[in-house]
């Protein structure tokens, strides 16, 4: 499973910028990687593991802005076509993660 978090957060005031930065930092601390500036993704070994990270993300939602959390399978993620300019690039393979229970 892949968990993707899409967001559009206000950044007009200093407080809003700080809140947006804190939200991005929380995603990074939870193992998400930046796909684009407002899209973060994380590979999860199972649906149960994905639900844990979704719950953590929901617990750190800012009061303002738009946030979308989407789950897709590894197969669906593998069908994504990525381009840098007009040059097609291969998607990154999921990183090996060791989880301790």
TrEMBL record:
The keyword Hydrolase applies. Keywords: Antiviral defense, Endonuclease, Hydrolase, Magnesium, Metal-binding, Nuclease. Belongs to the CRISPR-associated endoribonuclease Cas2 protein family. The gene is cas2. CRISPR (clustered regularly interspaced short palindromic repeat), is an adaptive immune system that provides protection against mobile genetic elements (viruses, transposable elements and conjugative plasmids). CRISPR clusters contain sequences complementary to antecedent mobile elements and target invading nucleic acids. CRISPR clusters are transcribed and processed into CRISPR RNA (crRNA). Functions as a ssRNA-specific endoribonuclease. Involved in the integration of spacer DNA into the CRISPR cassette. The keyword Hydrolase applies. This is CRISPR-associated endoribonuclease Cas2. Its EC number is 3.1.-.-. Mg(2+) binds at residue 8. Homodimer, forms a heterotetramer with a Cas1 homodimer. GO terms for molecular function: endonuclease activity. It is an enzyme of class 3 (hydrolase). Its cofactor is Mg(2+).
């Amino acid at each position: 499973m892949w968990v993707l978090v899409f967001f559009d957060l206000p950044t007009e005031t200093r407080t809003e910028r700080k809140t947006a930065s804190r939200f991005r930092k929380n995603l990074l601390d939870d193992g998400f990687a930046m796909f684009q500036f407002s899209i973060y993704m994380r590979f999860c070994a199972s649906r149960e593991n994905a639900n844990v990270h979704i719950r953590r993300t929901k617990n750190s939602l800012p009061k303002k802005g738009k946030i979308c959390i989407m789950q897709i399978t590894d197969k669906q993620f593998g069908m994504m076509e990525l381009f840098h300019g007009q040059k097609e690039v291969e998607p990154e393979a999921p990183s090996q993660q060791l989880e301790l229970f």
